Amino acid sequence: MNICPHSHPGDAASAEAPGCVRKAVRRAAERRTVLLIDGCPQVHAIVEGQLRDLNLDVYQVNSGSEALLQLGDWLPDLVLVDCQLPDFAAMEMLQKLHAQAHPRPISIIFLTSPDDDSVPGVALEEGAVEFLRKPLRAMELRARVRAVLNARALLCGLEYQARHDSLTGLLNRDGLLPRIEECLSRVNAGLKSHFALLVLDFDHFKQLNDAYGHDAGDDLLRQAAARVCATTRIRDLIHNDASELPIARLGGDEFAVLLEDLHDPTDAEEVAKRLIQELSREYSIDELRVASSISIGIVHGSHSHTNAGGLLRDGDAAMYEAKAAGRGCHVVFDSALRRRIERKANTERELRLAVESQQLTLAYQPIINLESGRFVGLESLLRWQHPKLGAVSPADFIPVAVNSGLIGPIGDWVLKKACIEFKQLQQQMGENAPDFIAVNVSRRQLTDTGLPAKISAVLAASGIDPKCLHLEITESELVTNLAAAKGTMREIKRLGVALSVDDFGTGYSSLASLYDFPIDVFKLDRSFIAADLTSERGRALMAVTHAVLQLARNIGVRVIAEGVETFPQLAVLQSLRCDMAQGYLLGRPMPLGQILAWSRTAVARMAT
């Protein structure tokens, strides 16, 4: 797949770059440009004659002023400049040439008189690459020019590789950042130049790599890069011409498009919509037809951004917000999103302090056997009591713990703490103690190959029987990590520990697929009983619940219903012969110290 490069016509590239990149480089290498600045007609004739067969375009001017006027149009690869020009001193001319050619540097050879020993040393220190003494000798001139141009081609090739992606030929992150900085400098200078950055990411790209291999993934990325280029080059899409836009592959399946000189800020959203439409069409990979949606984050350049890295960070944040919003859409970074990000960052910082200063505690919610009314289990629930903010909702800090990686050490602490406190409760309650303690396991823990060893160590340290420990795994996380989960779960089962699927019915799995796992308990999601039981939807959900219970019994799995809050819900679950239940009606989450007092009245309440 040929991807058009975003390089200067004079740049050189790696031989492994896509086809049309290599062609452009060859064209640049085949015909290079030399500018001669010298007031002597005889020197003009000598240089032109001696360089004629080197396949060069040679431009000649008589003065420095004339050269500076034409420099931008000619874009020379090499400048031969006389050190005794009529209008500029040698060092002044050197400085002006470098300044005029910025940011694309040029190579400069000084032409000096036979007896001038002062200029060459200073010139080399100031940025000239070579010097030649007059009168010019053919072999020396040709050799020096060829050597300088070859060295320049090699340097340009290295610079190209450093700033371009080898797979697609697009800019890479290092190549894009200077372009963003240029846009920001125009904004900060007060120029009326609006621009926006689009950050694109494929949804579920990892699944393609896992299913078909990295070669198929690379093929998709090359095709996607071509579509991004083609889509953003459509005439009049946002500009009045068809000039190329800075497009980059930032890494993996993440791309970026820099939209410069927008007529209207909303143009960026129109481009995003077009990209979502084009990149979501099917791709042909060998004999496969695959499709994947994309999520796009849009961030507009403004005075609030001090550097390109900050702009990319905000574009990334908007892109992840698009993924969280359902994928296959775009989200514009705004002040509200910035506040949410800052709030998450503050929460993460505070959470790290909470772990260190032991602000985290556990609460326990009772689980009741619906046939006997007996108190049979507890679910451990993480709580955070902030010294200033008070109780922080798990809905606010658990996602932060997951995204920051804190969920790993926090999960290990919860497992150890819950087992130790459950052993204490068993000692206090004796034969009336519940049968098991349920502890939630995160995706990070589930994919940790050391988890079975950690569980074994906790069981030994706490002294509880392995059968008293139930590990709860959210159905959606189990389905996401099927391959990694199977081996880990079987090792855990060998320890004698029970396994539960939490929030069952929300992860789009099936009993047939879960039958392959060593599952002991399904925890039926609260949504199954939350509806009005007298409504049509409520009756339909109860029919589904009945079917789930029957199928669970057929494969030997017990069911716990979550979120029981009313007596009608409890009565329906008992009539359907659901095994166990938990919820505010039966018992709210409470500290360990309150469990004993609650248990004294629980059996009497259930009996009535």
Describe the protein.
By secondary structure, the protein is an alpha/beta fold. Helix content is about 50%, strand content about 20%. It has an eight-stranded mixed barrel, surrounded by four helices. β11, α11 (about 310-325) and β12 (about 330) form a beta-alpha-beta unit. The protein starts with 18 loop residues before the first helix and ends with a helix.
What secondary-structure arrangement, pairings included, does this model have?
Blueprint: H1 19-30, E1 32-37, H2 41-51, E2 56-61, H3 64-74, E3 78-82, H4 90-101, E4 107-112, H5 119-125, E5 130-133, H6 138-163, H7 173-188, E6 196-202, H8 205-212, H9 214-232, E7 247-251, E8 254-259, H10 267-279, E9 283-285, E10 288-290, E11 294-300, H11 308-324, E12 330-332, H12 335-356, E13 360-369, E14 375-386, E15 390-392, H13 394-404, H14 407-429, E16 436-441, H15 443-446, H16 451-462, E17 469-474, H17 475-480, H18 482-494, E18 498-504, H19 511-514, E19 521-524, H20 527-530, H21 536-554, E20 558-561, H22 567-575, E21 580-581, H23 592-607
Parallel strand pairs: 1-2, 1-3, 3-4, 4-5, 11-12, 14-16, 16-17, 17-18, 18-19, 19-20, 20-21
Antiparallel strand pairs: 6-8, 6-11, 7-8, 9-10, 13-14, 13-21, 14-15
Helix pairs in contact: 2-6, 3-4, 8-9, 9-10, 12-13, 14-16
